[in-house]
Write a structure and sequence with these properties.
Blueprint: H1 2-24, H2 44-53, H3 68-81, H4 83-88, E1 90-94, E2 97-102, E3 112-117, E4 140-141, E5 144-146, H5 154-169, E6 178-183, H6 194-203, E7 210-213, E8 218-219, E9 230-237, E10 239-248, E11 252-253, H7 262-275, H8 284-293, H9 299-306, H10 308-318, E12 324-332, E13 338-339, E14 342-351, H11 357-368, E15 373-377, H12 393-405, E16 410-416, E17 432-434, E18 439-440, E19 454-456, H13 457-474
Helix pairs in contact: 1-9, 2-5, 5-13, 12-13
The protein binds zinc ion.
Zinc ion (ZN) binds at residues 117, 152-153, 186, 214.
Length: 476
Amino acid sequence: MKKFLKLLGLGLLALALFILIKTFTFSAEESEVAQVKPQEVPDEALTRLQKAIRFKTISYSYTSQPDSAEFTGLHNYLATAFPLVHAQLEKKTIQYSLLYKWQGTDNTLKPVVLMSHLDVVPVDEGTLADWEAPPFSGDIKNENIYGRGTMDDKVSVLAILEAVEASLQAGLKPKRTLYLAFGHDEEIGGDRGAASLAKYLEEQGVKLECVIDEGGYLVDGMVPGLDKSMAVINVAEKGYVSFELTITTKGGHSSAPPSDNTIGSLAVAITKLESNQFPFKSIPVIDRQIEILGPHLPFIQKMAFANTWLFGSKIQEAFNTHTSTAPTMIKGGVKDNVIPTTASAVVNFRVMTGETTEEVLKHVVETVNDDRIKVTSISNRNEPSPVSDYESASYKIIERTVQQLFPDVVVTPGLIGGGTDTKHYESISENAYRFFPYRVTSSNVTGFHGINEHIAVNNYKEIIQFYYQLIQNLNE
Ligand SMILES: [Zn+2]
């Protein structure tokens, strides 16, 4: 027994030593990139964004029509605000979406598409009083520009146009053909906008180097323990599906309730789904993120990140690397003393890379395991995106652009839970990168589709500078 304890003690000591060695040898990757002086941004750029915010280019729902006066108004405004772009680039309008082609001189280089979208989500009328400035005013208060589109996503439409206009002004003749693609219905899936633009390019026989879109940001102070900003270039997005669970029973009078009450049974189904979560798992892009991020963290977190063989499951949980299960809607019942004959609930799933919406459906049916409950899909069934190459030349260009302008930022590839318009380009572009340097903090993150959407004036200038530098770098 004594010998056993001694052996156990030695084993534990060796294990602790191993964990510590892994931790101490876990060091940050050095970046050799030299800083560049950012392009000067004139104050008129702010006015141009303010004016663009004032067009109410709202996407309500798939069945409602876009407001043509607002969209056409915005198109016309852009034409006057960016004269060189409109004189020198080829423009194509498809429905209310815009595609610009900036012809390059070297046809051996595959084109790149800079993407964004012109539409915004509606504003909940009840929240108007909570806004610092009206949501379609573009007003500047305390060095912030307010309004729908300042985060998502007119901000990058305008910043891209500013950068191209300034590049034309500086006499840039691109080697690589660049497209600017601005959809008009991203907020309701992009099936008419981005999908038509991508289809048009496909018909022209275009094969792309990559597309660069929204969906990854400069994250400030949101990773516990990380005292640097993190630039997340998202290389993949989860899939999306919502299933409705509808139960049908004989109902009855509430004075004599059956043991399998309609609402109770539906509640059991939901509880089963919540307590039978999809397993967390590791995928290479998350492993890479852990490798990049870990050395910058305080000791305890660094130790966990350096020893994923031991702490991996906790980290995967923190990174939310599984198909998530979220009950989002429920309805049933008409009167307080009547057991309803039907009730229904909606559960939304964000489908993890490597899994499918069909597998989710199977999981739901098997887990609920109740013949009275019918399961139907009530949303688009978007499969998870392919994972783009985070070692590619174009990824490195985006990474280098960030490092040139934001020297103390940790750049990492990542996986995003939400969807973007990039899915429509999958057949013509192997790689899709989702990033522009909006500075997301814990206090402004609620502005996405929420109250007080805004951008700091300085941050808007940084975004223009980013696109300007990116355009130069794409031409080297
Ligand atoms: Zn968006």
